[in-house]
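Researcher: I'm preparing a figure for a lab meeting and need a structural model of a single chain. I don't have an experimental structure, so a prediction will have to do for now. The sequence is pasted below. Please return the structure as tokens so I can convert it later.
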Amino acid sequence: MAEEDGLCFPSKSKIPLFIFFRNARMVLKMDELGLEIAQIAFPAALALTADPIASLVDTAFIGQIGSNELAAVGVSIALFNQVSRIAIFPLVSVTTSFVAEEDAVAELNSEEQELGSLESNPICTNEAKELLPQSGLDSKVISVKSETGSLSMEGCKPQRRHIPSASSALVIGAILGLLQAIFLISLAKPLLNYMGVKPDSPMLPPALRYLTLRSFGAPSVLVSLAMQGIFRGFKDTKTPLYATVAGDVTNIILDPIFMFVFRWGVSGAAIAHVISQYVISVILFRRLIQVVDLLPPSIKNLKFSRFLKNGFLLLMRVIAVTFCVTLAASLAARLGSTAMAAFQICLQVWLATSLLADGLAVAGQAILANAFAKNDFERATSTASRVLQLGFVLGLILCFMLGFGLKFAARLFTNDLNVLKLITIGIPFVALTQPINALAFVFDGINFGASDFAYSANSMVMVAAVSILCLMFLSSHYGFIGIWMALTIYMSLRAFAGFWRIGTGTGPWRFLRS
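Model: Understood. Here is the structure written out token by token.
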């Protein structure tokens, strides 16, 4: 290790590109770093995939009603999710990074104060310093005995933390959730028309009912995901997992009751989903108030300007992402209800499996934000290398699983032979893009962990510009296959943008060239 201006730099990183191959033989080793990544990534991945799985269950139930209802709900889900992502993605990503940074700084300050207190106390010995509590969510009580007496230290770290970003995230999440609900409910019909559901389409009535009812859950979605971002910043992904599973189990239980017993159809599916989201919010909030003091000393402590500045950068990014995916769904809807139904099933599987890599992205973001806050660049390098390698391995596994299994699993969602035929055409694209998707998602987490929000936004705008042209051209010439060809190009460009930033050692990664 070399030192410069008090900062620690890796001594073997003069060629930044080598970071992708660093200690590749240890990719699956459960050392200290591997265990930390696993403890964060595994619950995060389960929590992230729980909601798409719940949507898949919705899709499976609705598919039993008819292809028109399936296509209608597919359009509504795509529209709701893409509008939600405009608010969710910047909010959660910024919250995770800011909370991790503030927690790391608070941890360093706490350790300095504890050491200073011990050094100024004559009864404290070196043995007492070694017994100081490590970081955690709960306060600890330690009694240190010496020849001259004993030292009792209660609550070396406050049980309820003062993290301004946590309070800011909840306020912003609640406001954005209300705005989203108002927006979707008041403009449901023109938005569906933009998505290709025309006034004379048989898809319009069920799509309108589902979207309107589902929109009442928008405030709970935004607030619950803001709280998930807070817990991720604390490297706690188990609490969000428990809450998400509880909510989604509620959704799965209520779906058949509301849809078939009460005969509410697609309306019942939407109501069940809304109830499940409020269940998640209540569980997370009850746990959060136990570990964080959500009442700041003053409004200035909330630092809304910092949130808004970086949130705006990520808003540009997520609008670019949203436009690409929404345009793809809209182009599929214009091909008819059969094409839209097949596209909806392929897209839901594509996103659900790819989000497994987002668990690695969450782990990378939380660990990297903590490492950069402490100027621990050796740890940052090791973490980035490991999560990228794990992402590629995960992508290969998903590729083989979907390549061989999706053809048979598709019958769980529909019995329509025409829809099944189109799904078979989309399987190679869904399967073969998994390694690319995994790397793209992991790169997102790495960039956010390094607080490289400006590059993430600017690069995604450029990627989206190229991808939109590809979508328009390829869909017009090759139809359903053309849409998936364009989506493959889109994800490949996203992954390349991540490779370029770290591989050239620019921005926050310039230390790799030192």
